Amino acid sequence: MATKNKHRRFFRLQDEDRRIDPDPEELGKIETKKLQIYLNETYGIALDYLESLILLKRGKDIWITNKAAKSMIGIGKNLNINSLGLRALRNAFEVPKMTTNFAVFLNDKITKNYYEMTKEQLDEFTRGSEIKINAANEFKNYLILKYNKEVYGVGIINNGAIKSQVPKGRVLKNQLSKEIDLEVEED
Amino acid sequence: MFFPEAFINKMAKMLTEAELEKLKTALDTPLRKSIRVNTLRGTTKEVVESLESYEYVVDKMPWYKYGYFIKTAKKQAIGNTYDHYLGKIYVQEASSMLPVIALDPKEGEYILDMAAAPGSKTTQMCMHMKNTGIIVANEPSIQRISPLQDNLDRSGCINCCITRNDGRKFSHYTGMFDKVLLDAPCSGEGTFQKDIKARYVWSQNKVIENSRLQKQLLDSAIACTKKGGTIIYSTCTLSPEEDEAIIDYALNKYDNISLEKVSFEGLETSQGRTEFDGKEYNKEVKKVIKLWPQKTNIEGFFVCKMKIDE
Lengths: 187, 310
Ligand SMILES: C[S@@+](CC[C@H](N)C(=O)[O-])C[C@H]1O[C@@H](n2cnc3c(N)ncnc32)[C@H](O)[C@@H]1O
Fold this sequence. Notes:
The structure holds 2 protein chains of 2 kinds.
Chain A: H1 2-19, E1 25-26, H2 29-43, H3 47-51, E2 54-58, E3 61-65, H4 72-75, E4 81-84, E5 86-90, E6 97-98, H5 100-106, E7 114-116, H6 119-126, E8 131-132, E9 142-147, E10 150-158, E11 161-164
Parallel strand pairs in A: 7-9
Antiparallel strand pairs in A: 1-2, 2-3, 3-5, 5-6, 8-11, 9-10, 10-11
Chain B: H1 5-12, H2 17-27, E1 33-37, H3 44-53, E2 57-60, E3 67-71, H4 82-85, E4 89-91, H5 98-103, E5 110-113, H6 120-128, E6 134-138, H7 142-154, E7 160-163, E8 177-183, H8 196-201, H9 204-224, E9 225-235, H10 244-253, E10 257-260, E11 270-271, E12 275-276, E13 279-280, E14 289-291, H11 293-296, E15 301-308
Parallel strand pairs in B: 5-6, 5-8, 6-7, 8-9
Antiparallel strand pairs in B: 1-3, 1-4, 2-3, 9-15, 10-15, 11-14, 12-13, 14-15
């Protein structure tokens, strides 16, 4: 049994190794423009703001970084780049799904396609639960969830409810009083 | 509580009997919890107000405007607050914030964090740089890369490139970086206070093993820093073999480096030792600082600021 687990672990590491390929590459001008227009039309993000970010392509995903950091693509060839910048969109070339981190990063730059939650809904949403709403058809694709004008994440409409897309590792525990810290940080 | 005998014997060579007792007591006392406000995501004012609403008592560190000690009478986890969820706070030891304060990262700089995971100092540098310039966040351990990425993402960092290499590889990238942070892998004696397990895995052999690697990593840091650039060498350990002896090694090997004194307002730091166990160190080593937990009431730490001459 132990040997089997060991093998499984070995193959998982191999897969992880494979998953960090391919290397990031700068997105072409035409594709960049298309995505900028998509983000502008769907979420109201100003085009000149989007132009200040560099979009990188990695498989089906889009990552963002700043202009200076883009130079790492050339320099870093032998440096085993694991990632560059922040993952912004998954499945970017079909129905792009904005990541929670990118949505939170954009925050007040998002002016369209968002739902303003009540405090109770915020508590449900960040704990990974569905939120029942009446005006489900007002929203497009992946919508943004705000509370008190601040972005808390991304959701998708499913049977008249918003399904939380908060990643598992980020979902809050049931009560604040749970003493098991969620912290992954610290050195 | 348990302490390795060889560790206590070593500390006894550096401290008086009374000081040694104080060190033992300090290491058996729970650490004060601390957080850093991440100004990429929120202001200190709003975070303090929010934490107070969760009934935390929040106490600013005199030496760092973004660092706060927090305590609460309630049984609750800071990781369950919305401030943490949104990346407005980062749970970080008070002493772990010091190397970045000493490095003083500036907007637009090109910085290497040679041993980066889980990213406490990478995210802190990123916030000082306001997401401009580049941070190469290097970490050889694949298991530690994912918490590093998570912490960068939660903190809203976009200027970081995570690379996966042995830090010694950077010796081939001559003069590439404005600044290098080498928060070296070490025996973690400073962490004895919060992590009892660390006391059981500690051994003098590991100290010696670390010290060999630390010298090579510092060689690499010196090679890849620009002329006029800055290096911070830090550890969370107290053994001179991993601290002063590493700096002594570099001072004797290179004639293009010099040390700069660092100080932190309101923090009682100690200067570096110039001898240990019959070995004399370069007198310049006095300029480095050691944080003894019995004096500072924060985790034991070592910080050295080094400049590459123009
Ligand atoms: C003290 S921890 C770094 C903490 C980190 N700077 C922070 O503030 O969150 C030391 C790190 O060095 C890494 N390490 C070990 N050997 C290394 C090597 N040869 N080159 C670079 N890093 C190494 C370890 O995996 C560990 O993550």
